[in-house]
Amino acid sequence: MLVVFNPTAGARRRRRLTRAMDVLLGLGLRPELAETTCRGDAERLAREGAARGVPMVIAAGGDGTIAEVASGIAGSDAALGVLPLGTANVLAWELGLPMRPEAAAGRLARGRMVELRPGMARFGDGRARLFVQMLGAGFDAAVVANLDLALKRRIGRAAYVWQTIRELPRYPFAPIAVTLDGETHTATSAIITKGRLYAGRYRLAPEAKQGEPGFHVALFSAKGPVSTALLGAALPLNLLSRMPGVRLLRAARVELTTEGVPVQADGDAAGALPVVVTDMPGPLRLIGA
Ligand SMILES: Nc1ncnc2c1ncn2[C@@H]1O[C@H](COP(=O)(O)OP(=O)(O)OP(=O)(O)O)[C@@H](O)[C@H]1O
């Protein structure tokens, strides 16, 4: 088992990693530890591990690290594992993974497998990017793109609230052209999700189920700071999907075509539209669910 650790994920997570590693060692699992030094390193380390036949690659970090590891092992025989050490840890909450490092390590050792179907985003500039939980275009992506990462490390998810307040008065709320399985729509923001949850443990798409093919797509028509702030207030109350100006639809293929609108994938800045989103061709096996 290869453990890929992102030391910049979450805050002061090294001690939590050590506790998990101790449990894995105690169970006789001989985990090999590799630490990232920059963005993209988790994907490289995971790809190299899978290429030399490591059967399990564990993402020790947050959703961005998970997405990188998933991308690195895609198409190989390696399974993905998760030690949730990030800030929001949406996938871990979605799958009901334990947050305590000892319990999370125990789950990895027990080895129950589930299959996920990550999404694949193909951008207009030729980039392709895998995401495991969600991809957003519009307001939430602007918040992610301009987030102060040092502040996030210090105060965690409160940094998103702070950045939202800063973004509200200046975000342009330009319309985005959305095509869902050939049917056209317009929205000012869109979130394409594989799971129910968003920004931690908050419900966005109550009917969604990780592992199923296709996507649930939340389209937002809020055109200004007040209606957007109300959506932000509804999120922690789990009322987001029932708010006026929010539509939840399903699609197997999503095209967002308006150029220049910011995009986030699994909570990390991912450039700008246009993008076409479909399922990855094959499933991804996740261990420890
Ligand atoms: N050593 C590193 N230095 C700088 N950035 C890194 C390093 N290792 C990984 N990264 C990048 O850090 C980004 C954020 O990490 P990650 O998403 O795992 O943590 P998080 O943002 O705290 O958690 P969450 O996404 O669950 O809120 C990842 O997308 C990854 O590309």
If you had to describe this structure to a student in words, what would you say it looks like?
The protein folds into two domains: 2-111, 3-Layer(aba) Sandwich (Rossmann fold); 119-281, Tumour Suppressor Smad4 (Sandwich), CATH 2.60.200.40. 29% of the residues lie in helices and 31% in strands. The protein is built from nine helices and 20 strands. A six-stranded antiparallel beta sheet has the order 7-6-19-16-9-10. Strands 15-14-11-8-17-18 form a six-stranded antiparallel beta sheet. Strand 1 (2-5), helix 1 and strand 2 (32-35) form a beta-alpha-beta unit. Bound molecules: adenosine-5'-triphosphate. Residues 6-10, 36-39, 41-42, 61-65, 68, 86-89, 267-268 line the site of adenosine-5'-triphosphate. It comes from Plastoroseomonas hellenica. InterPro entries: ATP-NAD_kinase_N, Diacylglycerol_kinase_cat_dom, Lipid_Phosphate_FormReg, NAD/diacylglycerol_kinase_sf, YegS/DAGK_C.
Task: Give a quick precis of the structure.
This protein has 289 residues and is of the alpha+beta class.
List the helices and strands and how they pair.
Elements: E1 2-5, H1 14-26, E2 32-35, H2 41-51, E3 56-61, H3 63-73, E4 79-84, H4 90-95, H5 101-110, E5 113-116, E6 119-123, E7 128-131, E8 134-137, H6 139-145, H7 149-155, H8 158-167, E9 176-180, E10 183-187, E11 189-193, E12 197-198, E13 202-203, E14 215-220, H9 225-234, E15 246-251, E16 254-256, E17 262-265, E18 268-272, E19 275-279, E20 284-287
Parallel strand pairs: 1-2, 1-3, 3-4
Antiparallel strand pairs: 5-20, 6-7, 6-19, 8-11, 8-17, 9-10, 9-16, 11-14, 12-13, 14-15, 16-19, 17-18
Helix pairs in contact: 1-5, 2-3, 6-8
